[in-house]
Amino acid sequence: MKKILKLLSIIAAVAPVHIFSQQQPISDINFGDLSKPVPSVSSLATYTDAPVSLATGVPDVNFPLLGLSSNDKNIAANLSLQYHPLNMDTTEAGSEVGIGWSMFAGGVISREIVDELDERYDDTGFSGYKKNKFNDIYYYNLPGISGKFKFERNTDTNTFQVVNLTPNHIKIEYTRDNNTATLITTSFTITDDNGYKYIFDDFSQNRSYNHPLLSGTLFKSAFYLTQIKNANNVELLNFTYQKDNKNKPGTGELLYQFCKLKTITSPGIGSIVIDYNYDTPLEGTMNDPYSITKVSLKNNNMGIISQYGFEYSMQVENKRTLTRINKINLSNPTGTPLETTKLLYTEYYFNSNLGEDRACSANPTNPNTTPVGTLYKVILPTGGMVEYNFEANQYYKNKNVPDYVTPESFSDPEVQFIQSFVNVDFDVPNGQTKTYTFQVPGEPNKFKPIYVDFQATKYYPSYGLSEPYSNVDYVIDNDPNLTNICYSFNDEALEGSAWSFKTLYLTPGIHSIKIYGTGGHGTAGFSHIASIPTPYKNAVSNDKKAGIRIKDIKYYNSALDFVAKKTVSYDYSVFNDPNSSSGYGFYPEMESTSSDYAPVILYRNVKVTNDSDNGYVNYYFKNPNDYPKTPYTYNGNETKFWPYYNITKSGVMEKKEVFNNQNQLVAAVNYDFTFETLDQMPEVSVDGGVTKKAFIKNTKVITRDYTGANRFVESKVETEFNPVNFKAASVKETSSDGNVMERAVTYSAGSTEYQNLENAYMNGLPVKTEIKNNGKLISSSMVKYENQGNLYPSSVVNINANDNTSKVTIKYDDYDSKGNVRQFTSNQDTTTDAGISTVIIWGYNQSFPIAKIEGAKLSDIGSLADDIILKSNADVDISSETTLINALDNFRNLSALKNFVVTTYTYDPLVGVTTVTPADGIREIYKYDNNGKLTSVADVNGNIIKDYKYNIKPQP
Predict the structure, then answer these.
(1) How confident is the model at residue 92 (pLDDT cuts 50, 70, 90)?
(2) 166 shares its domain with 86
(3) 361 CB burial (10 A radius; 0-12, 13-18, 19+)
């Protein structure tokens, strides 16, 4: 116990070093008062500011769960779990799937409150009303797209503009209420450059009590995706939410309104359903009271196709912790799960674990540099195991300058420590005085702190005499200012012992300690500030705000194995200076007066070593410092302009070098980028200045494969990007033999022929592609959009490179209401318009093709397909499928279709095709188990053509 007290006293005396203690439950937390007001969605912002990348040291840890297709091959709802180590910070709440984890499902626009709520001044009648600047950041996450934006307010005209801070080409629109005092948004619509509309028409609400004069402001804390539509206004997916209100205790005042995703529906196909549990005891703590207990994929008839359940504990900082992912066995839903993924975490650091080497040895270990509560092991359903070892992020600091540290002050616990240099044992009889000498090492005539640990282990007179207390006093160098009284009340439990700690300032040399009082014996220990030998590591690794990074990932054949079959290690030191970190800290774009925001650490150099092949790869990245700030005038004030920040803030790959186990370079890839600022965009505040949105104008990637010393073959790819939609406009590939292939892509933007696409914001669609080989045009094709009444392709036209004549290779003759092609014509003659016509019959509520009729036109079919369409819509089980198959057989054998080639299909929607019957009637039958796994393929007579077996190794 004395050692612990001694240690804590030394730490408190020398520096403000953080000591971790177990977090107790926190009551009365109001998320509306926090910068991230919605715990389960605010964590998604981390993936935008610190993306998964070697440059950030964030590994890709994700588990795909469920997939729901739509009637459009480009749009689907994919449910997955992803882990981000920076979401383990003590300021982050336990989400609905556990601390550090996020459920990617649907879409959300979350917001981060910067300093104070943007719309806090919402009443012009308020005496303190003003038109404040807007600086809150909005983060959008939707299928395939993520980024952030903010509102720019013109305080003179009281108008607002959305500023997209991410280098993509989406359109962000909003609606607002009729409040003219400020901007209060009611919904958002994000349109991508293929014309898909993502409509955010639902929201959660929180109440903020932060402002001293405007306390109790109710605001929309996040907006939720409710629909995805294509450019033809066809609904592809819709999303519904569970809305629950919580009032302030003892009042009818709404404190917050939850908005939890309940179902994702693909019309005519199926749905994803999410089940929650509400934990009332977790209200007012650093947890989302809701936890996801189960997610289910269901077909259009609500039959379960796939299902997962989740188990949690509270082992990390009293926050919800995901411990198991169970794939439920649909053959026995209440029995043993079909598959289980187990998740283990590092133990949390308690102050009782602080060993004496924390500050009292030459190898100090700082709790800040020890990742705690992070994901540690994943035991897979196959029995294998993946081990993740994290460590503290580091950023560069030159610690080898003269007098970086001195014995006179404790300024850097990473290189300094408290060292004992002498112990003086004493035994002083009652009423007597004894003097001892000791020597303080160091440079003469320089005062420095000396820590005196004075322990009297037995006092005279002993317990039981008449004195009210005993004392042993000491004085250093007979200086009255250096006197200490160490006394003990005669308590039998203490056996007359006591301890004191004192900081004195002495110069190196010989000193004396005189001990007197009622007498006793013990030890006076003297310590001073020492430092580890130089050179020091040029890195700071004890900054809590900097977060953590991956150190290595180990792969095991079994969770019982002690030796990994493969280890992938990561080193972030400067390649030509291993004693220096290559990390630098950068802050997200925002205008804030607070110093509480955490930097994102980007590494310029990352070495990845794979011990299974004994080679390694060096990765080089550029960061914002490679494009330094320049003087700039903004709103009449002198500041700095930081170019290309929105691109470089995540790290940009500059070079990749591959070495074998002999340290020989075997391959290298060099990346050269040209960026361009979009001058028409408004300025955005960044750390120490402003920036503007920029895009990648062109890239050049040179690959060299080395065949020997200084011998290599080289290939090159050069890409120019369209300045409107930021997509590739031309690609030039030069192979090692000098052959040059070029591809030029034209988009609809700026073309009067495609004004209909431009009006629908479909300017990301390629409409013309030309391919050249060594400068000679060899291929040219165009996609036409000439249909009246819809924006689907009308035809694909190939242009003869020799005579510039054109030919329609495929013509889309007709679409249904969902955008499915009902009839197309291939190889159409340019003179007669004759070609090979094919009709597609769509069933299962217009979701799957049930018949392909080659050579026919819709006019040949008429109402012949009505019966099979109706029976496909009713296909829900084996009996109804048999009825459908019989109807398809009858359809295929109709005399009216005898001149055409007819192929028919049946399905278990969201599982797979169940039968394919070509014109000759030789059917293939696909069979699945209750969990959707293909078990066999049989012919029309039941003979097994292919058989599939699944053997899962049991977990330990």
Answers:
(1) confident
(2) yes
(3) middle
Find, among 647, 628, 648, the residue nearest to 689 by Cα. 628
Same domain as 202, residue 130: yes
Helix ranges (DSSP H) in 437-589 = none
- What are the backbone dihedrals phi and psi of residue 728, each rounded to the nearest 5 degrees, phi first? -60, 125
pLDDT tens track for 116-149 = 889 999 989 888 899 999 989 999 999 889 999 9
162: Cβ contacts below 8 Å, ≥ 6 apart: 149, 150, 151, 152, 172, 173, 174
For helices 878-892 and 866-873, give the axis angle rounded to 10 degrees.
170
On whether residue 36 sits in a domain, the answer given is: yes
Using the structure block, give the residue that is written with the tokens 């948004």: 185
pTM of the entire structure? 0.88
Q: How far apart are CA 435 and CA 428, in angstroms?
A: 10
Q: Are residues 272 and 194 in the same domain?
A: yes
Task: Identify whether the C-beta of residue 781 lies closer than 8 Å to the C-beta of residue 765.
Answer: no
Nearest by Cα to 486 from 515, 528, 506, 513: 515
State pLDDT tens for residues 833-870. 788 999 999 999 999 999 999 999 999 999 999 999 99
How remote is the C-alpha of 640 from its chain's centroid? 30
User: What backbone phi and psi angles, to 5 degrees, belong to 116?
Assistant: -140, 165
Q: For 201-224, give one letter per residue: b (16+ CB within 10 A) or e.
A: ebbbbbbbebeeebeebbbbbbbb
As beta bridge partners, residue 462 has none
Pairing of strands 577-581, 573-574: antiparallel
d(CA 188, CA 176): 9
Residues 912 and 955 in one domain: yes
Q: 3-class SS at 442? A: coil
Smallest CA-to-CA distance from 70 within 201, 264, 260 is with 264
- In this structure, the answer to whether residues 305 and 162 fall within a common structural domain is yes
Which positions ≥6 away from 554 have C-beta within 8 Å? 386, 387, 389, 564, 566, 567, 568
Do 8 and 78 lie in a common domain?
no
Shared-domain flag, residues 231 and 116: yes
Q: How far apart are the first and last CA of the chain?
A: 40
List, for residues 886-909, the tens digit of each pLDDT value. Answer: 999 999 999 999 999 999 999 999
